[in-house]
Amino acid sequence: MSVITWIGLGQMGLPMATNLVRAGHEVHGVEIDPEMAAAAAAAGIVMHDSAAESVPDSAFVFTMLPTGDLVAAVLTGEDGVFALMRDGAVAIDSSTVDVVQTRDLHDEAKRRGVAFLDAPVSGGVAGAQAGTLAVMVGGDAADFEVARPVLEGYGGHVGLIGGAGSGQAVKIVNNMIVGACLAATCEGVVLAERLGLDTSALFDMVSRSSGDNWALRNWYPIPGVVETAASNRDFAPGFTTALLVKDLNLAVSAGQATGTPLQTGQTVLRQFTEHKEAGNALLDCSSLITSIRDHVDR
């Protein structure tokens, strides 16, 4: 089993790293939030104030951070991960960040002679807890094969998509699609309410019909229907509105950079941005249904 450092033990990072502990790895962690750090320690992760305390002895170093700028600072700083890694170690970024920025990190890793993979995930908090995440990887095939057994510790489906930045490219496309599906699901549920339908019966039928989608089955915005849904917890977040807006911005920006018309993506981004700016940034993204209801009721 391997010695691993995990930087960023939030709602996704913590259950992912916990699964690696359960798999028998020695996991060290860095997390600035005291509550999450305490939860990580309780899960068997050896906590440190600085990555410098554990990175030099680690075979794998993971980052799971909210922005690309933070990832770049942690990896490429003067005392950053790339500078501290031992020979043969692999750095793996599981954040969701800009494709161009990720490719720049690959270039910097190559310049320094260190192995680096981008490996964002999909499947939500429930998938992270269950160890069933989809892990989409970009980078060198040999580095991927070294890391694969560790990635399979929290991933139900682990795949090398292609070269540098390919994992991030798939992730932003995926999240644009799921954002559109979630928006359509929320609008559909509100329409069903206005038509006098039982929304539990709606779920039962649509989840078996052509309107079925991942957001419907996992984030259904009506409480008491889907066990994993944030609607059961007054929209306490699994995946915040702010994070979805960030990811939708990444997709729309990539569309602009490549000359790809993303009319649906732009519409969904505008919809979730308005919801965020109405005071819902830290609520689960499925709380969009409340803004749709408010708009209908005006």
TrEMBL record:
It comes from the Bacteria. Gene3D superfamilies: N-(1-d-carboxylethyl)-l-norvaline Dehydrogenase, domain 2 (1.10.1040.10), NAD(P)-binding Rossmann-like Domain (3.40.50.720). Its EC number is 1.1.1.31. The active site is at K171. GO terms for molecular function: 3-hydroxyisobutyrate dehydrogenase activity; NAD binding; NADP binding. Keywords: NAD, Oxidoreductase. It is an enzyme of class 1 (oxidoreductase). Residues 4-161 form the 6-phosphogluconate dehydrogenase NADP-binding domain. It holds the Pfam family NAD_binding_11. Residues 165-290 form the 3-hydroxyisobutyrate dehydrogenase-like NAD-binding domain. Belongs to the HIBADH-related family. This is 3-hydroxyisobutyrate dehydrogenase. It comes from Gordonia humi.
